[in-house]
Design goal:
- This protein has helices at residues 11-24, 45-48, 63-68, 147-163, 183-199, 236-246, 304-307, 378-398, 460-477; strands at 3-7, 29-34, 38-40, 59-61, 71-82, 93-98, 107-111, 114-117, 122-124, 169-175, 206-211, 226-229, 232-235, 250-252, 255-261, 264-269, 274-278, 281-285, 287-289, 294-295, 345-347, 414-421, 428-434, 455-459.
- The protein is of the alpha/beta class.
- It has a domain at 3-123 and 290-366 and 373-401: 3-Layer(bba) Sandwich (FAD/NAD(P)-binding domain).
- The strands form seven sheets. Strands 1, 2, 5, 6, 7, 8, 20 and 21 form an eight-stranded mixed β-sheet that branches. Strands 14-11-10-18 form a four-stranded parallel β-sheet, with helices on one face. Strands 15-16-17 form a three-stranded antiparallel β-sheet, with no helix packed on it.
- A hairpin with a 2-residue loop joins strand 15 and strand 16 (264-269).
- The longest helix has 21 residues, at 378-398.
- It is globular, with a radius of gyration of 22 Å.
- The relative contact order is 0.14.
- The chain binds flavin-adenine dinucleotide.
């Protein structure tokens, strides 16, 4: 019997756990280690942040689900990886610290035959002074990255909108650090906040501004995209700017927020100039890094650098050779997500280290990087986790001759549905497909993507689709009847 340990129970970890538990959980031992007792459908945190949904609608407890699919759940935080075991034993293991109320603070060594790192991002609030404490509940700004953050954001938003009934208010929404990703979530939030201010009849008293590290609205860390519409290729810049202009939202792009204080923030632009903005309500996405796992060899010497890149994300089968922007290739991107040094370790979802950004890297004259990091949204995260789970099943069955399942982001499409407004009749969603996620100019000269498969539009159906996806993905994650036929 083999032991497979999955660190993380988010989009990627949960997808891998349910597939492995269902397929081989009766025969082998599958252990999930994660600090969260509940699964969070993160995309709908945007709606929790405006009060459209309650926190309870985006969360469900993990343990009963794992009991159904033969997965042993440990509510704990992984601390370190020991891929060579220790002096007394060659068996690789991880160390964990329990956060489970019944075992709080206890530590344990958990051995593994295969390890999946699906620990997602550390929300690095500390990178931007004043942005928030490590729990993300900032004194000055709010976040929607977790269900708790979003609940707090909703409370602060409603307080601000109440004040707007009598006094002018100013809202800033976007990204903080120059290397942030996840612009899409902030994009949805600003449009939903704008709609809420209109619905409450206070829009005239609320100035709403976008601030982001993107070179232009609609870059999204993927060097923008051209949507095939009626035989034309329309840029996401045009699309995004139109959406903002129609709604009276002003924007600042090319910005690195360097400091946040009560009611004001300082930011640097790509030209090196420093500026400031005041605000009454601000939601800024923090920088994402790896979660800070350490690694040790058999003798107990630290080998974290061998398993992880300096940003804390795990090295996989990507080409990490430093290259200039012009030399980057779609083929640099990983396909199996296997660690090159330890073949029984894989990384899935945000936890793997991308070989380079997709958007062109830029620095201000002061040396500040202002380049959106590549997006790793839910769909690719789940697809990668599924591929890794199937690779492990093959390895257990066929040993060294096993054929690993591949899932390159340079050969994978993604469906994105961004909420622009809510309501069964007044709702709007921007729905688009992008293929491939990582541009490939060799295959698709011109825009780097297949414009027949990269298309989108805005409409009421987008809101209905977004709502349907909410229920569909929660249904799948709860492993209800037929869950396996719902695509990840
Ligand atoms: C507000 C918001 C809205 C979004 N909207 C969309 C959307 O509409 N569509 C879309 O496709 N994507 C969206 N995304 C992105 C999507 O949420 C991510 O792509 C996805 O969650 C990544 O999955 P993951 O498993 O890599 O990370 P996560 O889902 O973050 O899971 C990481 C897991 O690792 C656990 N963990 C952390 N540290 C440790 C540790 N030391 N040991 C063990 N476990 C650990 C965490 O507790 C968690 O269980 C959104 C993101 C945000 C923040």
């Amino acid at each position: 019997m083999a032991q497979i340990v999955i660190m993380g129970a988010g989009v990627a970890g949960h997808a891998a756990a349910t597939i492995l538990g269902d397929a081989i959980g009766a025969e082998h031992k599958i252990i999930v280690v994660a600090p969260n007792s509940h699964w969070n459908y993160i995309p709908s945190n945007v709606w929790v942040g405006t009060g459209t949904m309650k926190k309870e609608e985006v969360l469900f407890p993990l343990r009963p689900i794992y009991e159904q699919v033969n997965v042993d759940f440990r509510q704990a935080k992984a601390i370190s990886i020991h891929p060579e075991g220790k002096e007394e034993s060659d068996t690789p293991f991880i160390t964990v610290e329990y956060v489970d109320p019944d075992r709080q603070g206890e530590t344990e060594e958990i051995p593994y035959d295969y390890l999946i790192n699906a620990t997602g991002p550390k929300l690095n609030f500390a990178k931007t002074p004043g942005l928030g404490d490590e729990n993300g509940i900032g004194e000055h700004t709010v976040s929607i990255c977790s269900a708790d953050h979003a609940t707090h954001a909703h409370q602060r938003l409603d307080e601000m909108l109440e004040r707007a009934r009598s006094t002018k208010q100013k809202v800033l929404i976007g990204t903080s650090d120059g290397t942030c990703t996840c612009q899409g979530a902030a994009f949805e939030y600003i449009l939903n906040v704008e709609q809420k201010a209109r619905k409450m009849g206070v829009r005239d008293n609320v100035e709403i501004k976008w601030i982001s590290n993107e070179p232009y609205i609609g870059d999204f860390g993927m060097d923008g995209l051209h949507l095939g519409v009626a035989g034309y290729a329309i840029s996401s810049k045009l699309f995004g700017e139109s959406l903002f202009a129609e709604r009276g939202i002003h924007w600042i792009t090319d910005a690195h927020v360097s400091k946040v204080e009560e009611g004001r923030l300082e930011y640097e632009l790509i030209d090196g100039t420093m500026h400031e903005e005041s605000f009454d309500f601000a939601m800024l996405i923090p920088q994402f890094t790896g979660v800070g796992l350490k690694a040790y060899d058999k003798a107990g010497e630290e080998i974290t650098d061998e398993l992880f890149m300096p940003n804390g994300f795990m090295k996989v089968d990507a080409d990490y050779t430093p290259k200039s922007y012009e030399e980057w290739k779609a083929g640099d991107w990983p396909v199996t997500y296997q660690n090159p040094s330890y073949k029984n370790i894989f990384a899935a979802g945000i936890a793997f280290a991308p070989p380079h950004p997709i958007s062109e890297p830029r620095k201000s004259p002061n040396g500040t990087p202002i380049t959106p990091a590549p997006p790793r949204t839910g769909m690719p995260s789940a697809t990668i986790a599924e591929a890794v789970a199937h690779s492990i099943i093959s390895l257990l069955r066929d040993g060294e001759s096993a054929k690993l399942t591949t899932a390159s982001m340079a050969e994978m499409g993604a469906l994105c549905v961004a909420s622009a407004a809510v309501g069964w009749k007044a709702g709007q969603g921007v729905s688009f497909t992008v293929y491939p996620i990582v541009k490939d100019y060799d295959k698709y000269p011109g825009t780097g993507r297949d414009t027949l498969r990269t298309f989108g539009s805005i409409g009421l159906y987008g809101h209905w689709l977004k709502t349907a996806l909410h229920y569909m993905f929660i249904y799948k994650a709860k492993v209800k009847p037929g869950w396996k036929i719902i695509p990840g």
